[in-house]
Amino acid sequence: LAFLEHLPKVELHAHLNGSIPLPLLRDLAREYASSPDAATTTSDDILAGVQRLQAGEAFTDIDDIFSVFPAIHALTSTPASLKRATGAVLSHFLDPPTSDSTYGSVASVAYIELRTTPRATPHMSRRVYLETVLDEIEARAPDAAALIVSLDRRMTPDVAQEVLALAVQLRREGRRVVGVDLCGDPRAGDMTAFVGLFRTARAEGLGVTLHIAETSGNSTAESKELLSCEPERLGHATYLDEEAREVVLARRTCIEICLTSNLSCKTVQQLQDHHIRHYLARNHPIAISTDDILPFRTSILGEYALLLAPKPVGLGLTESEVEAVARMGMESRFRNTLS
Ligand code: 5GP
Fold first, then answer.
1. What atom in ligand 1 is closest to the CA of residue 76?
2. Would the CB of 105 count as within 6 Å of ligand 1?
3. Of 60, 134, 161, 219, which is most buried, counting CB atoms within 10 Å of its CB?
């Protein structure tokens, strides 16, 4: 454990609203229940979702995971609650493990690129959403954290365009926006409308990472289209076909690997079948990441422990192999990030 704790690690694939530490979620849920919002927007689904998270229930598959995000979003729909959520997520990942931080760091990372999808709510615009998250990142961890702005596959073209424009604008204003992401329900949306936006993002100097081929239902045509944007990194990339894998290997595109997430969503049936093996065997860049610590009940330490633990519980890597993997993550940060 000491080896993993002291290993310099980065977190490159963590969704803000999926990474809220449970104690804060409980506080937010309690406060939400007595807020005016609860009277107007509380639905049984939201209450049920929060209760499941509080109970630490396991999720059955990817549909089940996606059903719980509206509940979390209801709790972070004001600038004040979003600021607290961002602060707690940063503390979780960055505070030294020995400190008695309120929201408990398990093993800190040296650097985090946190991602989130800006939402317009009755209490804030998308711009205020992003400014709130950025204010917290810049105040707490100016050298150790940066923001990736997520575009959700379910966004209308107009909203996606607006979100990209915000990312570009905030970066030009000198804010710590380092990239954009494509996330959201893998079965939704027509990616043709997004491709131009990711090309613009690259031309503007933003890093691009795309959730791709996350489920068996994602078509090879879609993956090809997304790869045509030449993203620097890919999220999951579980079901890439042989041709797409060749492209990824040739370009040395970093694959963000979220082991527990893939097992929990059942997009990978067992650890020994995970596509990480394909990339490890070829010394191809990967970044070990958590995805959503809240529903998946994992931590960066837990993800690295899966690499090191003997088979069949883990992948049985040696310490020096794990060190090499951690270095790959470090080298896969979006440029223009660390000072
Ligand atoms: P947020 O962007 O609100 O901070 O974080 C939650 C959002 O991240 C979810 O609504 C969803 O769009 C996205 N997300 C979280 N986990 C996953 C995942 O495993 N796959 C995909 N495609 N999107 C995810």
1. 3
2. no
3. 134
Q: Is residue 336 over pLDDT 80? A: no
pLDDT at 52: 84
Our answer on whether the CB atom of 17 is closer than 6 Å to any ligand 1 atom is yes
Which residues pair with residue 180 across a beta bridge?
149, 208
Query: Are 114 and 148 spatial neighbours (Cβ–Cβ below 8 Å)?
Result: yes
Strand order in the sheet with 145-152: 10-15, 111-116, 145-152, 177-183, 207-212, 233-236, 254-257, 286-288
Does the ipTM surpass 0.95? yes
Tell me the β-bridge partners of 15.
Answer: 115
Question: How many angstroms is it from 3 CA to the middle of ligand 1?
Answer: 31
| Residue 300: domain span | 2-19+76-331
Residue of 214, 232, 256, 303 marked catalytic: 214
Distance 319 CA to ligand 1 centre (A): 31
| Total number of domains constituting the chain | 1
pTM of this structure: 0.95
Residue 214 annotated among the catalytic residues of the structure = yes
Q: Per the domain annotation, does 284 fall within a domain?
A: yes
Residue 6 predicted with pLDDT over 70: yes
> Would you say residue 158 lies in a domain?
yes
Q: What is the pLDDT of residues 181-217, one digit of tens each?
A: 999 999 998 998 899 999 999 999 999 999 999 999 9
CA of 320 to the centre of ligand 1 (A): 32
DSSP state letter for 147: E
| pLDDT at residue number 33 | 79
Report yes or no on 101 lying in a domain: yes
**Structural domain includes residue 61:** no
